[in-house]
Amino acid sequence: MKRTIFTIVIVVGILALIGWILINNKKENQAKTDIVAKGTGAVIVRTATVSKSPLNLDFSANGNFAAWQDLSLLAENSGRITQILVDEGAHVNKGQVLARIDDKYLSLALQTAKDNLSKLKTDQQRYESSFKTGGVTKAQLDEINLNVRNAENQFQEAQRRLADSYVKAPIAGIINKRNIEVGAYVSPGTALFDIVDVSRLKLLVNANELQVVNLKLGDQVKITSTVFPDNVFSGKISFIAAKSDNTLNYPVEIRVENSSNQQLKAGMYGTATFELPKQEPTIIIPRGAFVGSVSSNEVFILENGNTAKLRKVTAGRNLGEQVEILSGLKEGEVIITSGQINLVDGTEVKPQALDSTKQHKVSNQVADSTNKN
């Protein structure tokens, strides 16, 4: 019994000691809080001075070179390949014969069409003479005339089929791939050769909405390639998409004249540098200075050195981490760039301005952000 009472007394004593410690800690924390509350109560913020900065809209974009023309030449006749006159890698001219398809049956078909046409023309002359004397009716004459026209069409078709037995290059270029061998049987639609024209190339790149509005057809563009770091190629914008793709970028096509020895190859990587007209200096502030987001068009400015005042502004171009301000701010005013989450209009603040090094770094970010693609 005494042991039980002794145990209870010890437990109660321990609980009382814990309670006393907790209460004492609470008093100490409250005392510290009161000391802070008795201070200025100002919210610590960072600030920056509003100034105009030169706006550099030049940018670079990476892409792939594509052949100016790239086609797969298909057979138009059925038959066996009897001769191949070019091999892979050969330069060919437009209209040059590349291969021949067996034309024996095509020649026979042409001769048959020619004989049939000759006979019908003879009959036509006889019918015309007979019609004048009443020997044939008008319907019979019309029928022979129709037969002659049909025979002429068949003769022209046979001529075309025989001509197509000579496979000719539709464009000038390089035989990139040969898909046939002598003796192979082909039918209409069979792939014969792949021909590419790399005398000029297309560099395919993308531009965002801020960049594409400053581009126009015919603009000169500097082109470089990591394969030829010492060479600078010249190009012209030949196409600007009227509609963005799924990533909200606009495809841009640049025509590049290849060198005489055709150094550049289709499929290589290239970098296009767009040098745009210089812009007048304008007011630019960090994106983080906006209350909430850029769409709010609200920032806090510093008044009297210690008061945050809410200001409506008009945002212009979005330059990555920087935003152009069209109206609402003047040079020399001080904006609050961080700590806005704790502010309302009229809140007392304690500014910590960026040092000169950081201020210069922020200004330099304007050019960097506009150069990103």
How does the SSE layout of this entry go?
Layout: H1 2-37, E1 43-49, E2 52-53, E3 59-74, E4 79-84, E5 91-92, E6 97-101, H2 104-133, H3 138-163, E7 166-168, E8 173-178, E9 185-186, E10 191-207, H4 209-212, E11 220-225, E12 228-240, E13 250-257, E14 269-274, E15 282-286, E16 298-303, E17 307-312, E18 314-319, E19 322-327, E20 334-338, E21 349-353, H5 356-371
Parallel strand pairs: 1-21
Antiparallel strand pairs: 1-20, 2-15, 3-10, 3-14, 4-6, 4-9, 5-8, 6-7, 8-10, 10-13, 11-12, 11-14, 12-13, 15-19, 16-17, 18-19
Protein name: Efflux RND transporter periplasmic adaptor subunit
Coiled coil: 110-168
Domain YknX-like C-terminal permuted SH3-like: 285-350
Structural commentary:
It contains five helices and 21 strands. About 4% of the residues have low confidence. Helices cover 30% and strands 37% of the residues. The termini are far apart. The protein is an alpha+beta fold and 373 residues long. Strand 16 and strand 17 form a beta hairpin. The protein has three domains: 106 residues, conserved putative lor/sdh protein from methanococcus maripaludis s2 fold (Beta Barrel); 87 residues, Efflux pump adaptor protein, beta barrel domain (Elongation Factor Tu (Ef-tu), domain 3), CATH 2.40.30; 117 residues, RNA polymerase II/Efflux pump adaptor protein, barrel-sandwich hybrid domain (OB fold (Dihydrolipoamide Acetyltransferase, E2P)), CATH 2.40.50.100. It has a six-stranded antiparallel β-barrel. Strands 2-15-19-18 form a four-stranded antiparallel beta sheet. A four-stranded antiparallel beta sheet has the order 7-6-4-9, with no helix packed on it. Belongs to the membrane fusion protein (MFP) (TC 8.A.1) family. Keywords: Coiled coil, Membrane, Transmembrane, Transmembrane helix. InterPro entries: Beta-barrel_RND_2, MdtA-like_BSH, RND_pump_MFP, YknX-like_C.
